[in-house]
Design goal:
Blueprint lengths: L10 H14 L46 H6 L8 H4 L5 H25 L1
Length: 119
């Protein structure tokens, strides 16, 4: 996918999409056991289970090498990841994207902790 065809995400629209998926529609986060959240579920080609940032990355831009890295790390290391993500996720808004990912990850961990404590 060429850089010219990618438009930066509007932070408010991205937040609204994530809110609708996880809060309104009660969507499930993508978790990988002890590794925590993942951008994509392990069955990424058939599953729509994704993390808050993963759901914003078009399938054509996703790469498994993104896993185990925060969105901030992916944006800052743009050369290593093809230079596309800083176009999609405006690097001027990196603290917003990191915060959105962090809120989602913490909520997913809290949900897992609550379920474990009930057993």
């Amino acid at each position: 996918m060429k850089t010219q065809t990618i438009k930066p995400l509007d932070p408010q629209k991205a937040f609204n999409k994530v809110w609708k998926h996880f809060i309104v529609d009660n969507g499930k986060p993508s978790k990988r056991g002890w590794m925590g959240c993942a951008y994509r579920d392990k069955n990424e080609s058939t599953s729509k289970i994704r993390c808050s940032i993963g759901m914003l990355i078009p399938d054509k831009l996703y790469n498994r090498s993104f896993e185990a890295h925060t969105i901030g790390q992916l944006i800052k290391n743009q050369q290593k990841y093809g230079g596309i993500l800083p176009v999609l996720f405006d690097k001027q808004e990196v603290s917003f994207w990191d915060g959105l990912q962090d809120c989602h990850d913490r909520a997913a961990y809290d949900t897992r902790s609550q379920k474990n404590s009930q057993n």
